[in-house]
Structure formats: structure tokens, C-alpha cells
């Protein structure tokens, strides 16, 4: 699975198969953004808190900020965040910028990272759960996890899978959101805690006013990463456009960070600790 799909957890492979066939026939050859007339952004139409067709996600707000800085109107190429997202949208010439990707994604030229975040343990505020996974008390708990994501390895490693509640990885995100459902289940008491990608947790706890708290999951030797540096992505071979985006990031980093905080994204410092406001 490509790292972008794995990281963003948009979980919509079935939907991509249907949309991909319709969109692929329209892909033009090439595409160049050195002197664009618009900021053409690749985005998922059903992927809050990142993006949606109503432009309600934090990546939509960041795109608007970049467009304003460059005096360019923002236009979107909508495609589900699954296999083919970069090939069809960015490299197919339909769009010129991916707002969020992991640093070093080989499918794109990635910018300097503009935030770092990771997976978290979510639990009721009035019933704290230890983030120390060696705590014997955890063996009696029902802990939610999206199947196939990095926290699954933690549960297996610590012998906590027996009572874990798995949530489907592959869904149609037009009608389902496993991470959101997990948080609702923790809030209702259906499960005791959940392990989820931090931006999902922070957004829905704030947006839905859920009585939940969260703590960062700690990296353990030999297991897949739990924290990531997030950058923007442009096409390989388009250095002038890439440099323009890098310059915007330098100018507007403070404004971008404010947007992330407004959406509840749990930001981490270079050591993987919660970043200070």
C-alpha cells in the first residue's frame, strides 16, 4: 500500500475503482505549472478533517491561504485518496499541488515539512487509560483500532489483541468513517479506548464536543513509525513551481500552524513530544 494511502487513512479503495475508470479516460499528457492561472489542488472530496467538496477541511483552508498569497484562484481536482491519486491527478496534469503528504514520498517532490503529528490513544476524560501499553490493566480493556494501521502492531506486540475491536480499513468514505465511529464508540462507552490517527482524533473531539482526552502513542523499536512529518507535494521536474510553494510555506508557516491548531490537530515537536502553543 502506498505510504500516502496508509498515512492518510481515507480508506476508500472500493470507491476509487469506480471513480478511477471514469477519470482515467480524461487524463491529458504532461502538465506544467510554472506560470499557472490558478492554484490547482489535488484533493479527496470526502476526507474530513483534511478536505471535502464543501471546502470545510483544514487542507482546504491552507489551499485558500496559499492561493491568496500567490494571488491565484483555487481550483480542485477531486479524486479519492487511494492508489492512483497521484498518478491520475498530479502526474496526469489535472492538478499541480498535493497539500498533505509524508516527507520523502517518492511519487512526488516533497517540500520542507510544515507539521508533524502521529497516532494517539483516545479515552474518556473521566476514565483515563494509561498510554504505557505494558500496564496489566489494559488487558481487560476493549481497545479500538483501524485494521492494518500501525497501532495494530502495538496491540499485537503487547498481547492486547484478544479484546480489541477492529474497524474496517476499506470503506466507502461517502457514507462511512471508521475513525469517527471509533471515537463515538469511546464516548458512548461501547469500547474503553481507541488508537487513531491524531488529526482525526483532535478534529472530532473538538468538532463533536466529545468528552474525550488523548495521549500520543510512543514509538517502539522494531515497529512501524507512529509519527510523520507532513509536507506538500509537486510534480517531479517542475522546480520553478516547487520553489514558489516552498517560499509560501516559509512566509506563511505561522498562519498555517494556526489553521492546524484551530482544527485540533495534535502537533508534535522534533522529538515527537506535544508541541508548545
Present the secondary structure layout.
Layout: H1 3-8, H2 13-24, E1 39-43, E2 46-47, E3 51-52, H3 58-70, E4 74-78, H4 85-90, E5 97-102, E6 109-110, E7 115-124, E8 143-146, H5 151-157, E9 165-167, H6 178-188, E10 193-197, H7 198-207, E11 212-216, E12 227-234, H8 239-262
Helix pairs in contact: 3-8
Describe the model.
The protein is an alpha/beta fold. It folds into two domains: 3-115 and 228-262, D-Maltodextrin-Binding Protein, domain 2, CATH 3.40.190.10; 117-216, 3-Layer(aba) Sandwich (D-Maltodextrin-Binding Protein, domain 2). The chain is 32% helix and 21% strand. The chain contains eight helices and twelve strands. The strands form two sheets. Strands 1, 4, 5, 6, 7, 8, 9, 10, 11 and 12 form a ten-stranded mixed β-sheet that branches. The chain has a two-stranded antiparallel ribbon with strand order 2-3. The longest helix has 24 residues, at 239-262.
Amino acid at each position: 500500500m502506498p505510504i500516502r494511502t496508509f498515512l492518510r487513512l481515507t480508506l476508500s479503495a472500493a470507491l476509487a475503482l469506480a471513480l478511477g475508470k471514469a477519470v482515467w479516460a480524461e487524463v491529458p499528457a504532461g502538465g506544467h505549472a510554472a506560470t499557472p492561472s490558478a492554484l490547482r489542488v489535488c484533493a479527496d472530496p470526502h476526507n474530513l478533517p483534511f478536505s471535502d467538496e464543501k471546502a470545510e477541511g483544514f487542507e482546504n483552508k491552507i489551499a485558500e491561504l496559499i492561493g491568496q498569497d500567490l494571488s491565484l484562484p483555487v481550483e480542485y481536482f477531486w479524486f479519492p485518496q487511494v492508489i492512483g491519486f497521484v498518478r491520475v491527478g498530479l502526474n496526469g496534469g489535472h492538478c499541480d499541488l498535493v497539500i498533505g503528504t509524508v516527507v520523502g514520498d517518492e511519487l512526488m517532490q516533497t517540500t520542507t515539512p510544515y507539521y508533524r503529528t502521529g497516532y494517539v490513544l483516545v479515552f474518556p476524560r473521566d476514565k483515563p487509560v494509561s498510554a504505557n501499553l505494558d500496564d496489566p490493566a489494559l488487558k481487560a480493556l476493549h481497545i479500538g483500532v483501524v485494521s492494518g494501521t500501525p497501532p495494530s502492531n502495538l496491540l499485537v506486540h503487547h498481547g492486547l489483541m484478544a479484546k480489541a475491536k477492529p474497524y474496517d480499513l476499506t470503506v466507502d468514505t461517502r457514507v462511512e468513517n471508521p475513525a469517527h465511529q471509533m471515537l463515538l464508540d469511546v464516548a458512548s462507552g461501547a469500547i474503553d479506548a481507541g488508537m487513531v490517527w491524531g488529526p482525526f482524533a483532535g478534529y472530532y473531539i473538538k468538532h463533536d464536543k466529545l468528552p474525550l482526552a488523548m495521549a500520543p502513542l510512543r514509538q517502539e523499536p522494531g515497529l512501524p513509525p507512529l509519527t510523520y512529518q507532513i509536507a506538500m507535494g509537486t510534480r517531479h521536474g517542475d522546480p520553478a513551481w516547487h520553489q514558489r510553494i516552498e517560499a509560501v510555506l516559509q512566509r506563511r508557516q505561522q498562519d498555517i500552524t494556526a489553521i492546524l491548531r484551530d482544527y485540533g490537530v495534535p502537533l508534535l515537536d522534533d522529538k515527537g513530544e506535544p508541541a508548545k502553543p
